[in-house]
Structure formats: structure tokens, C-alpha cells
Design a protein that fits this description.
Radius of gyration: 30 Å
Strand order of the largest sheet: 12-34-33-32-38-39
Structural class: alpha+beta
Helix content: 25-40%
Number of helices: 23
Largest sheet: 6 strands, antiparallel
Shape: globular
Distance between the termini: 83 Å
Length: 933
Amino acid sequence: MLHSKSFVRTTRGGAVKKVVREHYLRDDIYCGSPSCTVCDTKNARLSSSAPKVLVVDTNVVLNQIDLLENPAIEDVVVLSVVLEEVKNKNLSVYNRLRALCSSSARKFFVFSNEFHKDTYVKAMVGESPNDRNDRAIRVATQWYQNHLGGSTQVLLITNDKENKRKATEEGLSAETVETYVKSLGHPELLDLVVLPTNGDVAMEEAEDLRPSKRQVIYAEHKPMSEITSGLHRGIYHQGKLRINRYNPFEAYVGSESIGDEIVIHGRVNMNRAFDGDVVAVELLPQDQWQDVKSLSIAEDEDEEEEDVHLVPNSADDAPRNTTSDDAGGSTGLVSCRPSGHVVGIIKRNWHSYCGSLEPKPLPAGGGGIAHALFVSKDHRIPKIRIQTRQLGNLLDKRIIVTVHSWDRMSRYPFGHYVRTIGAVGDRDTESEVVLIENDINSGPFSTQVLACLPPLPWTLSPEDLANPNRQDLRHVRVFSVDPPGCKDIDDALHCTALPSGNYEVGVHIADVTNFVHPGTPLDEEAARRGTSVYLVERRIDMLPKPLTEDVCSLKSDVERLAFSVIWEMTPEAEIISTRYTKSVIKSCAAMSYVEAQARMDDSRLVDPLTQDLRNLNTLAKIMRLRRIERGALTLASAEVKFQLDTETHDPLDIGMYQIREANQMIEEFMLAANVSVAEKILKHFPLCSLLRRHPVPTKEMLEPLLRTAAAVGLDLDISSSKALADSLDRAVGDDPYFNKLIRILATRCMTQAVYFCSGDLTPPEFLHYGLAAPLYTHFTSPIRRFADVIVHRLLGAALGICKLPPIFQDRVQLTSIADNLNYRHRNAQMASRASVELHTLIYFKNQPTDTEARILKIRSNGFIVFVPKFGIEGPVFLMKKGETGSEWVVDEAHQRVTKAGSKICFTILQTIRIHLEVVEIQPNRKKLQLTLM
């Protein structure tokens, strides 16, 4: 049955255009119930003996997704009209709902009501889209009731008062979420029920606060119509709010409209915005802009000191030029930064938060509703008010809470308890918290995903060898060099001396796309995960282990499929020619960096493999020098290595990770392969290639580095990456660690590199600043990164080996994929860093230590220091908490703090001795405390 849908839309040029689309209606769309005598039941998802089938409306899904994910909620029909509405309103909830509907362990069924001839409804004249969709939900509910007969009750779950009234009038069974959950007889589920704020449904009060006693704390958010108008007129400025991880009362909003960052001081000016929210900001009068000076180390609302953290890898980890991040003083000329306040929230970034409840006496009786404040482990998140019927069971536990509203008359947002992770302080619990805080999916792969794997044990087939697009390179001396204990080996090399005196050098990458096909559950799951995540004690894989550690891993002495980039190079490392091919290899050795370095350094070894290593190293040194001469930056980060107990996984030792020539050798050829592939795919697909760029840092971003350098007598030239690289090379002193510290500070001033679709930007914007490369992508780690999987498909299509999947014709979808990859990549970095911080805390718990530290930032009440041995950063206070006065005087121009009336002085980058010790600052919260010796 064919039905035509017509609507009008406005083109970019302003013209009004009528669009007519054909809409096919069918009568063979099945209900999903295995007990149905009419429908084909082979794909049925509902229970065969379900006494009730639930039909949920859109708002229930949007607001109650945590409840729906609970195993107690089963036999749910998700209508296609609901699925589409959820997708348009909240992509995160949509992905969670899709996961529920695709899980074989859950009884959720998607019914395409919009394409069934008996359930499709046409909008009536004057009917709003929302009313039409509500009517479509009621029509589908009625169809289910008639279709399944009297043996199964069909229940519409809605918190919409009007929708519930109409459903009842039409003879349907309808209940609110709270009423239905109460009927289940599981009181603990009531903690998951979100209290509606729109007044549609009366529910139990969240707190006994009399209106006459409540006060307005925050300004009312402007409506979107006013925000849109204000943005067009330049009154408001849009951007993403980032809260300083070192001071939760300082935030900034990067604004393109004024070309600067707007500083937001205090919770009131943040106006209920969370970190990551897209907000509308109004500038304050200029006389209210605050100087970047005379600042102290931040204390939160409970006067808690800031925690110790790893050194951030880039400026994205903290505000770049806010008052809290720059040292200040009572003297010196420092310009004001634009200051503003949030007038509206354009897009919320609320998600699940991990933490614990504030300890409090249990209420009398113990069985009723108790109100509590939840404290997130992320100090940028305000305390969250929740109500619970199981307070006694939640104290001293790490729990997950989500936010659902924030009243302008409440100091804290309102949320609800989701689930318990484990006991506070337990290492496994705290590791799980790290994953949840960073939205890392550590769950097992579904049966649908595992069904996509090739039969095991996998061996090379005759068809693989007969494939004309795959070259047999098993005779070539290929080998890999990786970190010790590496099982997911996705790159290998070879270096063969040619009669001409040149070298054939090959980079061989695991041919993951031979096993991960577009559109399969395996492909979709890898796309969602985006990247593997490396924690101190374990790895969270992007792909199932049979692929990462066996079928795709380029292990020694086994035949494996690869995608190869092969160059002919002169002894001066000049590339004569480049070719790309799918291949079959058989690695002769899988070495660690230490083993490869030992081979190269042992003059007694003259075997062919060792000679290959030395030849590659010689070429790599030339390539590295040439890259640095072009302007590539040699930056530094505080990478930490742990020695773990094999049984308990507790840290036994901690130290800085050592970089060897072997590391740099492998890095150089991986970089070269990525550049070569970027050039190839962009030539063939100029509008849909996935590339990686590193934006040029602005002078404002580099300001903290320049100020620190000036204070120690350095003159850094930042006019180009080449100028900065040369300046960093000249930044040497008597202290052998001085140069590395300057490079770490430079790293912090950089933005993060990001993935992007080539059709979204112009070629000058493709530049990778840090590598001084006009083009760059990721090709060399497809086992660990989904970006590389996409690039493999692009390269295969460029070579005519395979067709380009249809998704590459959808620019919007490609941009969305790049955005998700950036999000997942950043979260993986943050999770890795948080894991190191956790194990650092565990390491120092029972062994206080005295060590050296370097001063990074000067404050009026102390300074921020970096501890080179352990790669951590934290505050050292010069006065006791709560003390005030002008005993210490800050000299901003020279970056030093002096005790009044004495010769005691501390300067930037100065070496000091500190004491490290874990202390308990309040119940359920410990911290690593740094004190001056």
C-alpha cells in the first residue's frame, strides 16, 4: 500500500519548497510475541507467557532510561515513532535504547507502527506533531490489545496527563511510571523513578521545603527563542562550558563570536550549567571583569583542598587562561579576561555520575523515604540531591546517580539513584568507577557480535593466497617491535637491502577489515566503542579477543593477513616510490622495545634480523631529523609505569616510562605510513576522507608558557611550529630535567588533535601542527582504533580492492562518526590517566615518601608542583586551610612568592623537597597530600 507524505521546507537560499515522499504501508509487520497465532514468530522477542506487554511513550524513554535498563522491566514494545522521536531529542538515550532492543538478554521489541497499514496515522488539520505522535502511540496500543486478544494485557506507560486521560477514554489500560513500578512489589525500583518537573503527574514530594521558605538562588533560563535572537544580535555568545578541574568555581566558554574565552566565576554565574553543556553567555559589564591575579588555590563549598592529579596532556584538560589556572599576585600588570554569566542552556551534557552519599544519621524508623546529598568523585560536578528508600544500604558505597532537573530555588540539582558499584575504597570498585565516569563500555560482547567472528582456530585459506589483490610476502623477513607483553600486535616492518643500494621498507598493518565488515553487529559495536582503553591493570578491547590477540594479531611464526605500505628509500631516507597492497606475511620475530634495543646495541650480533633493525634505525634517525627541521615539535608528557603484583594487581613500584631509540624508530615509520595513506585516500576521495588535524595554538593558549619562560629568562619564539621547536631546543640549563619540564608545559598549551571529514574543512585547515604535516591520518592501529578501520576501507576503495560503503556518501553521518571518535578517544585518555591516579593513591597508601618536586604555578597561598618521579601534580600550601592575610606576597612579573619580612622565597620551576602521604579528609574520601619539607 502506497501513501504519499508531503511537507514544505525552506532551502538555504530562503525559497520555500514542497517535498513529496512515498510512504509504503505493509500488513506483514509482526508483533514480536511468540504466542501469537497470526504472526511469524521466528524473530519474536517478547516472553511467551508474558501477562503484560508494556508500550512506552517518548517521554518515558527519555526520562526513565535508567529504569528501563533494569532487568525487572521486561516485555516492552518500542514503537518506531517513539524511537525516531528519541533519536531526534537525545542521541545518548537513543543509543542506550537501541542497545536494549538489540540485546538477546532483554525482552524489548521494536514495532514499526509507522509502516503498518493498521497503525499508521495521518496528521489531522491543526494537530501538532506532538499530539499526532501521542495519537499514533494510542492507536498502536489499541492494535496490540486487539491483536493479542484477552490472554495478554497491553499497558500504555505514560506520565503525560492528557495522553493518559485520552487513552483511558478510548478504553486502553494506562498507568504512570510510578504507579506501575509500585505494582511490581520491588520498592528499591522506586529509587530509579524520575520525578517529573512539568506538573503532569502528581508524585511524592522530593523534599519537605515549604514554598514560603524557599529563595531564588539562580536566574531563570532564557527561552530558546530569546537565546536565538540574542545570538543573532550579538547580545549572547554560544559555546561549550568547561569547568576547571582544579577549581570547580571557575569555568570558561570558548566563544567564536568574540574570538576569546569568556571566564565564568562562581556557581551563581554558571547558573546551573554542568561541565560540557552548550550554553548561552552574556558578558558582564567590563568593570566587573576580574583580573588574573591575586588568586589562591581553590577551595570548594566544604573548604576541601584540591586533589592531586596527573599532569594534563593538553590545554583541553583544563581552562587555558582562567583566573584559577594562571598564577597571580598583588603586583604586576595582567590584563582582564572577558567575564560573563550563563543565561541559558542550549544543550545539556547530563549523564551518569559515580560517587558516594554524604554520611548522615539514618532516619527514625528506617523504612521510609530518606533525602541525601550525593558527592561525585568528579569535583567539577555539584552535589546532587536524591531521595531513596535504602539509605542504610547505600552509605559507604560507590553508587551511580543521574541528574534529571535543577530547580532555580535549589542549591543542588535533583537526581536519582541508579545502582551500586561496590564498597568505597575497594580497588575493583574504584577501577569500575573510572570506566563509568568516562563512559567506557567494559561489558562483554553480545552473542550477535561474537557470531560475526570467523571459525576458530583460524588459518590462512587457499582463497586468500589466490586473491589477485593480495601479495604473498611470506618470504620477506618481517618482524614486530612492541611494548613488553603486547598481545594485540597490529603493526610489523621489514627492511630489505636492494642491489641498487637503496632499501625496500615495508610497514605491515593487521588487515582487520577482512574480518570486520560494514554494517554488521561487530562493525557497529566497534564504531560505538571507538577505541581500546588501556588501564594500569587491564585493557578494554574495541574488538573481541579472538580477533585482537589471535586472528588479527601479527604474531611471530604464523601466517597473517596484512595491509602493507611499501617504499623504496635511498640511504638518505628519501622516498623513491610508494605502493600499497593487501598482503600475506609471516613474522619471524615479535620483540619488545627492550629486546630490539638490546639487539641494536650489542656489537657482537651481526645476524640479518639485527642488521635490519640497525638499518631501520639509521633511516628513522634521518627521517626524524628531517621532520624536526620542517618544524615538528618534540614535546613531552609525564608517562608513568607501574610494576604490579601478579595476584592482587596492587602496585609494587612506580616510575617514569623510559623512551628508547627503538620506540622512536617504530614511531617514525608509523608516522610515515599514516602520512602516505592520508595522501592516497585524499587524492581519491577529496570530500569524504577521514583525516586527523592538530590546530595551531593561539597566542592566548601559549600565554602561560610564555609567562613562565620569561620568568626564568627564556625567550620563546612562537611565530611558527619551527620557531617554537628551535626555541625549545635552546631551552637548556644546568638542571638536566629543565628542558623536559619546559616541554611538558608546552604540551599543556596545545589543543588536542582531532579526527575530521575532509569535506568539512578547507585544505589549509588540514594541518597537523605538532607533526608539521600538511596531511595526516590514522592507519596503523586498526585493532585498537575504529578510525583506522575506516581509513583501511577508504584505502581499499582507492586501490579498487573493494567498494566504498554507502555511509561515505553521507557527509552528516561521517561528521557524526568523527565526533564520536574524538569523544571516545578523549574519554579513553582520561580513563587511562584516572587509572594511573588511582594506582598512585593505592601505592602511597601505606608508604609515605619524601621526594623532589618542581614549582609550576605560583599562588597567593601556595603553589602547584610537579613531581617528576611519579608524574603527578598537586598543590602545596604555604598556610593552613582557612588562614588569610598578606604574609606571602606574589610577584606576578617574576613568578615568585616571598614571605614578608624574610628572605624566604619560592620561584617558578624551582626544585623543592616535599612529603607525600595519603590522608583522609572526610569519611569515604582520601587524597594524596603534598606538604613542604
